[in-house]
Write a structure and sequence with these properties.
This protein is α+β, with helices and mostly antiparallel strands. The protein has two domains: about 80 residues, Phosphorylase Kinase, domain 1; about 160 residues, Transferase(Phosphotransferase) domain 1 (Transferase(Phosphotransferase), domain 1, Orthogonal Bundle). The protein contains eight helices and eleven strands. Helix 4 packs antiparallel against helix 6. The longest helix has 20 residues. The protein is globular, with a radius of gyration of 18 Å. It comes from Deinococcus aluminii. GO terms for molecular function: kinase activity. This is Serine/threonine-protein kinase PrkC. It holds the Pfam family Pkinase.
Length: about 250
């Protein structure tokens, strides 16, 4: 059922759909003063995801993360009012591939912003658990924000049984095994994205190596080490390494 024109919360008016994720539909909206925002509307059976996103996202305040502002309801569906992230999802923004060949400066800025946001998130004791292109919105110049915290939670959170979190192509080996996840698991996903930026395709035996060695190969190895105990664990350190190897002063 179309929801455009409906008013929710404290005078927030839904305007038009922006997109649909695996758990929710996102609408562009305007607040009572005309300020733009977004409303993330969950299917009723994903109410626990909405509650988790509000619980973990409401206390986050960083320019590289979407802010979760308030919970509301739209009929029988839970919803969240969040700040508006502008731009296109990462794979759409970097349509010329490999991104580090065709749009190197912007893609490096995207990765730097992603690591900046993850560094803040990890410092709060949280892990994102679903770092993937659809959850990274990128503006034309490369500026980026990380969205969607409905799978996020405390580092090393233990569930009743093995629980696989995330999206298969970007999961760390420990996520595939259903183990409790820490910051290094988010960083593995960043490494997959870096590999995509270098190769123009996701990692796998059929993907050829880049035609020329790249200084960022060192960071790729550090981020995608299969053994989590030997993998790079600090987003701050990863960002510093990215800037040093790329030679760009972000």
């Amino acid at each position: 059922m179309p929801l455009a024109g409906e008013v929710v919360g404290e005078g927030v008016r839904l305007v038009r759909p922006l997109g649909r994720g695996s758990h929710s539909l996102v609408y562009f909206a305007v607040g009572p003063g005309g300020q733009p925002c977004a409303v993330k509307i969950f299917d009723p059976h994903f109410a626990a995801h909405a509650a988790r996103e509000y619980r973990n996202g409401a206390r986050l305040d960083h320019p590289r993360l979407v802010r979760v502002l308030a919970p509301v309801r739209i009929g029988d569906r839970p919803a969240l009012i969040v700040t508006l992230a502008r731009g296109a999802v990462l794979f759409e923004r970097y349509s010329r591939r490999p991104a580090l060949t065709h749009d190197r400066r912007a893609f490096l800025l995207t990765l730097a912003h992603l690591l900046d946001g993850l560094g803040y998130l990890h410092a709060q004791g949280l892990v994102h658990r679903d770092v993937k292109p659809e959850n990274i919105l990128v503006e034309p110049g490369g500026s980026a924000k990380l969205v969607d915290f409905d799978l996020s939670g405390p580092a090393r959170e233990v569930f009743a049984g093995p629980t696989r979190m995330g999206t298969a192509a970007f999961q760390s080996p420990e996520a595939v095994r259903g183990e409790a996840l820490g910051p290094e698991s988010d960083l593995y996903s960043v490494g997959v994205l870096l590999g995509w930026g270098l190769h123009g395709a996701l990692s796998g035996p059929e993907v050829p190596p880049p035609p020329l060695a790249d200084p960022l190969d060192r960071l790729l190895v550090a981020l995608t080490e299969p053994d989590r105990t030997r993998r790079l664990k600090s987003a701050v350190q990863a960002r510093e390494m990215l800037l040093k190897l790329s030679g760009l002063p972000y």
